[in-house]
Amino acid sequence: MSSEPWPSSRPSGPADPAGSPVGALLLCRAGADSVETVAQLLRERMLLAPAGDEWSVLVPEGKPWLHGGEPVDRVLTGWATALAVGSSWPVLALWWDADRCGYTLAAGFRRTVGYVWLANGTPVGEDEAMRTFAARLGLDPVFDMQALDALTRPDPGADARARMRGLLAVLTRAGVDLPPGLRPGEPADRLREAAHVWDGVRQVEWPGWRDAVRAELEAVEYGPLARALSGAQLAVGIPLLLWSLRRRGRGWAVAGAVLVVHGALGLTRERGRVRGET
Known about the structure:
Largest sheet: 7 strands, antiparallel
Number of strands: 7
Strand content: 5-15%
Structural class: alpha+beta
Mean pLDDT: 78
């Protein structure tokens, strides 16, 4: 693998946001229509486009990690968790900064898994995370797992950018096809500029509570399983939201808020259905 330098020499931090080496992407295993409805609840401006037959990609337009006091990996983990618990499909967050790069995989209410590489490519994650990652995405347990194992072994010729390219190569075999210009290690500004010129790109924005509630109600399913899921979302979302507000964790606050919204709307719709049948 190539040893193309990680852009750690570029200035970073709030003093020079345009030159910050921080970047991030969200890969969702669902079509753009499904992703757009849930992504609106993040209340963050994002660009949305297909990324393969079964995948979509979200490119953040803002950079909350520069202003909210949280590093990019925590912000992205909160976003991925919020998207995954409000849907039936997994969400993979890819992120990088001047010192590290990594991924976080969120799927429903299951514990998130992730892996991290230092800028020089040194792996600092746990092998078990890679195995869980492969299992949850339904990757080939032999061929794909061998490629993932190689990313957890020392390799003097592979820096962080090369490690991320190796991960994307495995995801390509799982159907991921990133649009042009989305290269690992690129700053958020360049990713946004690349996304703006794609054909069919959508701009995801917060539509306001009225439209958001209407869209969520239309997406709510009925039945005992839906009622149980809504209750679980409230049970997890309320304490998570309170904890994140005390800790001032913006990413987790978003996850808690989305859980509460989904749970409350689901129970409200279910009660209305029951009343209508009696």
